[in-house]
Predict the structure of Membrane protein.
Amino acid sequence: MLTETLRRHGPALALAALLGTSGVLHLRRPAVFRPLVPRILGDPDPWVLGSGVAELACAAALVAPPTRRLGGWASAALLVGVFPGNVTMAVRSRTDARGWAGKPAVAWGRLPLQVPLVAWAVSVARRGG
């Protein structure tokens, strides 16, 4: 019974936990995320706040089986949408004095991780509630 429950709900709940944690971090420590916003988008604060709220909304949708399919697709879209921020972080990682300087391995290493995260969200969406 527990194994079946984990098999059925575990992937969605784990993704919800990941997105929920990230969403809270966006709201509690926005300075960490400001350097990820491409300069062309202007003031990073609305983008950081908006992405944090979006992550929390996706997490909430993933928890409830009736909204899980929508939450999975929304999570996949969000993860694709924030990819330019991850690229920006990687490009700036050697020179940016706002936190990522000297950490290019971490910044560049995050980029390929986006692919399995999007695949995970799509898998949750396809499985639905």
